[in-house]
Structure formats: C-alpha cells, structure tokens
Amino acid sequence: MSEVKYPVSEADEAAQYYERQKQLKQQEQINPDYYKAGGIEAIDFIEAHSLNFNLGNVIKYITRAGLKQGEDRLTALTKAKWYLDREFLREKSIRNYKLIKRQHNYTLYILNQWLDYTTRFLRGEAENAARCKTE
Questions:
Q1: The three-state (H, E, C) secondary structure of 36-93, written as one string
Q2: CB–CB of 109/103 below 8 Å?
Q3: Average pLDDT score over residue span 19-43
Q4: Domain boundaries, the chain
C-alpha cells in the first residue's frame, strides 16, 4: 500500500521554518562565527595538542581577542595573560617540588649510606671487642 502524502499547510510550513530558525539560533549561541576565525576553532587546536585547562584558555582568549561583540581586545588579552601567569606558577611549583623531592631523595641516600657505614663500623668494633675478650 502506498503512503498518502498530504499537502503541507501554511501553518505547518511556518512551524517548520520557526523550528529551523530556532535550531540555527541555538547553534549560533553555542558556536558563534567568531569561534571559527582563522579557519580553525580554538577547541580543535587545544584538543589536538592535548593542552591543559590554563593553556587551553590562553589559546581561546588569544584567538578570539577582539572578535566577541562587546568585548575589546585588551580584555581578552588580559584574561589570556591571567591564565598564562597561572600556568607559569603551576609549572614552577611542579619543578620546585621535583627539585625538593630530588634533594630529599639525595639526603635520604646519604643518610642511608652513613647509617650503613656506621652499622658496619660498629659491628666491626663489636667483633674486635669480642675477639679481644676470647684471646
């Protein structure tokens, strides 16, 4: 049995048109044109390079600087700088932690060597003392 097609009423056409416009507006709000400036979206670049949150925001604010309506370039660049400064401090603290850990491990190594030497020395002294008593 063939499907019967009914003519589309003007009300249906209007409803479809309204729905398409609504979808386009939602898409525009989620992904406005200035996100694609330069031919690539910031998020694609960020994900391709596996950047962390701070560096991702630096890229995002730099690539979109001056393109967002109502926001000047300096505001966006200030935000990018804030995230870059934050990443710099994070990286610096990680390096300091690694350096401190390395120094701590070296100190433990030296203490362990000293303890081992002292233990052998004291055992040797005890063996000497025991040998002297038996002679």
A1: HHHHCCHHHHHHHCCCCHHHHHHHHHHHCCCCCCCCCHHHHHHHHHHHHHHHHHHHHH
A2: no
A3: 73
A4: 40-134
Stretch (H or E) spanning 29: helix 10-30
Contact in structure between 71 and 78 (CB atoms under 8 Å):
no
Return the amino acid letter for 98: K
What count of residues does the chain have?
A: 135
CA distances (Å), origin 67, targets 41, 44, 110, 118? 13, 18, 58, 70
Distances (CA, A) of 121 to 84, 99, 112, 127: 55, 33, 14, 10
What are the structure tokens assigned to 88, written together? Answer: 């710099």
* Contact predicate 77/84, CB 8 Å: no
CA distance 43 to 60: 7
| Residue 90 one-letter amino acid | R
The whole-model pTM stands at: 0.56
Name the residue with tokens 């390395």: 102
Q: Which pLDDT tens digit goes with each residue over 105-125?
A: 888 888 888 988 888 888 887
